Structure formats: structure tokens, C-alpha cells
Amino acid sequence: MKRLLATFVLAAAAVGAHAGRPCEVRAPTAISVMRGMTLAEHTARALDDSGAQVVLLARAGQDLRRYGLDWSHLGFAYRDGARWRVVHKLNHCGSAQAALYRQGLGEFFLDDPFEYRAGFVVLDPALQARLLPALRDDGRVSALHIDAYNMLAYPWALQYQQSNQWALETLAMVQEPAASSRERAQAWLRLQGYEPTVLRLGPLTRLGGRMTAANIAFDDHPNEKRFSDRIETVTVDSVFAWLNRSGLGGPAQVLR
User: Fold this and answer.
1) Which of 30, 78, 117, 127 is exposed most, by the fewest CB atoms within 10 A?
2) What is residue 3's DSSP assignment?
3) In this predicted model, what pLDDT tens digit does every residue of 101-126 receive, in sequence order?
4) Residue ranges of the domains in the chain?
5) Hey, CA dihedral for 23, 27, 30, 33, is it positive or negative?
């Protein structure tokens, strides 16, 4: 059974764990800590008011507006007694490896984001009821996780897995008991109408990314799509849109 890591923000910074933001390790400033904790407080209040037990929670770690995207990183936030915890996947900075983490809301937002803004989707109550015990169980929450990380992993391949992809596949596994493997979870998502984001990345951009970043690869993408500059990947925006379209979640709510 894979061990689910529990960390604090300083420990995460020490090992260089990142997702949804540039790979730069910088000591937190008083202002960044204050802004992160303020956003965490606003988020906790909104989640309490929602009456939910489990939501999908997003942050704006990187500026992805040039791709038409609002969010960069996704995790599950779940109620643990009187507090909220977040389970999410983080990349080990500078490498093609990743792990799963449990954090508080404050830790989740103290990761030097591009913008102090949060988004969340309240999930269907029946789905929440299935997810809550799974998220508390290290074995179940890590069942579909793999270490091999690619920021632009192809959604319908098994070679790599990025952070948002792990969350989506885990949701599929919990919602559909037959989706007990990554392959089956992906098949279920296709049947349920999930549509990944298509990024238009030219050959020079692809080449630069592959040569300068260990956590970016394109060899899992079909050649006919890759060489026509169509890079498909799982984004928070596409997950939020699908949840609302499928009835598995409500509209995204934005907090600052």
C-alpha cells in the first residue's frame, strides 16, 4: 500500500513539492502568509456555509490566461470533524515524480500562487457520500496514483499522470465501482462525456518544454494530435465544466 504523505508547508517547500505554479522555492513572506491564510479562512467559511462534506477545490497557482484557463491545480477538500482537509497530488520540483499529500486549507493556499483566488464545486450528495470514506482511507485514495508525472499527460494514456488527472480518475473510481483501474476509470469518463482541454502548442513550444523541464513530456500523445499542435490534457476548467454538465456537481463558486 502506498503511504500517503502528511506535510506542513515548510516541509513541502523543503522537498520542493509543487503543482499548478512555477517551480521556484522561495521563503514565504509575511504578506504572502497573511494573504494565504485570509483566503483559507474565506474558503473554510464558504465551505461550511455550503453544507457540503466533499468538494473539488481549485487554486490559481500559475497564470494560464493565455490558454483561456482560470485554474491550474485541483484537489479534494473534505470535512474532518470541525476542520477541512485537502488531498491532492504534487510534483517533486525539478523531477518527473509526484506524490499524494494531505494538507489543511492554510497549507494548500500557502504555496506562492499566481493569484490568491479559490474555486470550488459542491458535488452531488450521493457522490460526496461515496467519496468521504474513500478520501480518509490511504489505500483507496492512492489506488490509482502513479509516481510518473507529466504536467501535460494525455488523458487517455497510462504512461504518466498529472495532478488534475489523478483527482478525476479517483472520482471516477469512487463513483463507478467497476472503474477499479486507471484504464477502466478513463473508459468510464469517456462514456460519461468528459472532454479534456485542447491546448494549441507549436513544435518550438513543445521542444522547449521537453528539453528544459523534466516534468513535461509529449510522447504519450497520439502522433496525429501532437504533430497537428493539439495537446489534450486534464485541466481544472474542463473538470468543473464536465461536473456541471453531467449533474455530478454544481456551478463553480469563486472566492478571493
Assistant:
1) 30
2) P
3) 999 999 999 877 778 899 999 999 99
4) 5-255
5) positive
